[in-house]
Write the structure tokens for this entry.
Amino acid sequence: MRDDRFCSSNCPFTRAIGTIGNKWKPIIINVLGTRTMRFGQLGAVVPHISRKVLTEQLKELEEDGLLERLAYKELPPRVEYRLSEKGLAFLPILENIKEWNLKYEVATIPKETDYKYAG
């Protein structure tokens, strides 16, 4: 859920955190990467996210201009998601965060919880 107090702050860093600041949005952006994916595919790849939360997060990412929702007029209906130009511009920042974590993380991750994301 978005915290509008963060999004309307005078501080640009606080506004940025308000846009991408929960745990799910960066993961969704990372999983999408440069691909186009359907809702079911995202739900299968993003670990431990409920359908309800995934729906909310995708809607917020679209509202914030990080994601494009492509709805096709077919039967059955088909909807795909991909990163917008703004979302793609966030990928190098995520790479830097991953590199920072690899350099400084102290805990080792068991193989069964080692998820593979895009990038």
Q: What stands out?
A: The helical segments are 4-7, 12-20, 24-32, 39-45, 51-63, 85-104. The chain has a mean pLDDT of 86. The CA atoms of residues 2 and 18 lie 7 Å apart. The radius of gyration is 15 Å.
